[in-house]
Amino acid sequence: MAPLVHAARQGTGITTLTLDSPANRNALSARLVAELREALAGAAADPGTRAVVLTHTGNTFCAGADLKSPCDPADFLALLREITALPKPVVARVTGHVRAGGLGLLGACDIAAAGPQSSYAFTETHLGLAPAVISMTVLPRLDPRAASRYLLTAEAFDAAEAARIGLLTLHTADDVDTALAPVLDGLRKASPQALAETKAMVAAGVREALDRDGARLTELSARLFASAEAREGITARFERRDPSWVR
């Protein structure tokens, strides 16, 4: 089978990890999560890598959980911990849509940049679920009032709004790679020791949330996925109809 995550470094100090599962819009299947964890470990062990860029093929960065075959919430929690604990900065490069669990990936990254075609939504409440595990990486980033609105309503919003509320570091109306160039240049010029220690400081709040609440919210996520309301919400999504609770 073709890999779902491609790793490439071209001597520039930046390793690019590309999510490449277009059949399910880069959804968080058990296989994609496992491959991404393996690729991150490889980048961490590579002395020539100063930073990691996480990007995607297709028009979706990540659609969230693979609803036909979701990964174990504990494995997803482990992935988020590994991103935040990686001794090298992780930069999200987004040119498409981000939904649900994909926003958890975005929140775990140290820097996040997006182009004009990107859009965002915490879709869990419309499926009978809650953004439980991902709350640990997104809530430390977000404006509290915006978090209450978007996590509850599942409304979609654009890159400008994502930057305003703290989900993105920067957005551009033009080419995202041009906008990222000075960011990556700055990371290339930093020493490995300095990057590791500085990342440990700036990511401390997110890592503390993962350590403090990880077990409880992973259990909540598993319980909700197994509930009758979630089964109805997910079935309704596949059948392209409103779930039974919509009035």
TrEMBL record:
Pfam families in the record: ECH_1
SUPFAM superfamilies: ClpP/crotonase
Regions crossing the membrane: none
InterPro entries: ClpP/crotonase-like_dom_sf (IPR029045), Enoyl-CoA_hydra/iso (IPR001753), Enoyl-CoA_hydra_C (IPR014748), Enoyl-CoA_Hydratase/Isomerase (IPR051683)
Family to which this protein belongs: Belongs to the enoyl-CoA hydratase/isomerase family.
Protein name: Enoyl-CoA hydratase family protein
Organism: Streptomyces katrae
